[in-house]
Write a structure and sequence with these properties.
By secondary structure, the protein is an alpha+beta fold. The protein contains 8 helices and 4 strands; from the N terminus they run ααβααβαβαβαα.
Length: 214
C-alpha cells in the first residue's frame, strides 16, 4: 500500500473476525516496530504478544478495557526507562509511540485492523500479571486481528489550516472542561479499587465507556 494512502485510510478497529493470523504476519508487525526512531537510538522496546484468553481476562478483570478481552490478539508495548535521563519529556513514551504507529500502519497495510489501547490496569498490576521488572514501563496495548466489517470513514475534526501556525502559538486559550476533571478523578478512584469491587461495578463502567462503530 502506498504510504500516504495507508496513513489516511488507517482506522481504529475494535471488532474482529475469528480468522487466525497467517504465517509471518507477527514478525512483519514487530519488524516495523523496531525500525521506528527511538531517543538517542536506545531501541529499548519490548513487545509481549498475547493470544491467551486467560491472560486477556486477567487484564480485563483488573480494570482493563473490554476491547482487550474481546480482541483475538494483543501486543503489550514496554520500554526500558533505565535508558533515559530525560524525565521532563519522558522520551521513552515518545519512542514507544513511534513504534506503535509503525506497527498500526503495518497492521493496516497487511489487511488487518488494530487499535491503540491505554484503558489498562495500573502499571504495578500489569507488572505482576506479566512478571515485568520495575525499570520496564508498560506504555500501551494494541489489539488487532482481521476486521469483522469494512471500516467506516472517520472525518478529521478540524481543517488543516486550523492545526498549524508559524513561529508562535496563535490559538485561543482553553479551559479544562468540568467533565474531564470528573473523569480524571473517577479513574483515579477506579484504579485503586480492589479487583472484587471492580467486578461488581464493571457492568456499569462498560455502559459508560464511549462506544465506537469500527
Amino acid at each position: 500500500m502506498e504510504l500516504e494512502r495507508a496513513i489516511k485510510t488507517r482506522r481504529s478497529i475494535r471488532h474482529f473476525s475469528s480468522r487466525p493470523l497467517e504465517q509471518g504476519i507477527l514478525e512483519k508487525i514487530f519488524h516495523a516496530g523496531i525500525h521506528a526512531p527511538s531517543h538517542c537510538n536506545t531501541q529499548g522496546w519490548k513487545f509481549i504478544f498475547i493470544d491467551d484468553a486467560d491472560v486477556k481476562e486477567k487484564i480485563f478483570a483488573a480494570g482493563g478495557s473490554c476491547a482487550v478481552r474481546n480482541a483475538p490478539y494483543g501486543i503489550l508495548v514496554l520500554y526500558n526507562t533505565a535508558l533515559s535521563d530525560n524525565l521532563e519529556y519522558r522520551d521513552w513514551l515518545q519512542s514507544s509511540a513511534a513504534a506503535i504507529q509503525n506497527m498500526l500502519l503495518t497492521i493496516h497495510d497487511l489487511g488487518l485492523g488494530g487499535c491503540w489501547i491505554c484503558h489498562l490496569p495500573r502499571k504495578k498490576v500489569l507488572r505482576k500479571i506479566f512478571n515485568i521488572p520495575k525499570l520496564y514501563s508498560p506504555v500501551a496495548y494494541l489489539i488487532f486481528g482481521y476486521p469483522k466489517t469494512e471500516p467506516l470513514f472517520m472525518p478529521r475534526r478540524y481543517r488543516l489550516e486550523e492545526m498549524w501556525a508559524v513561529n508562535k502559538f496563535v490559538w485561543p486559550c482553553e479551559k479544562l472542561k468540568p467533565e474531564i476533571r470528573l473523569k480524571r478523578a473517577a479513574k483515579k478512584i477506579y484504579f485503586v479499587l480492589p479487583d472484587f469491587i471492580k467486578k461488581v461495578i464493571m457492568p456499569l463502567t462498560d455502559k459508560l465507556v464511549k462506544k465506537f462503530n469500527n
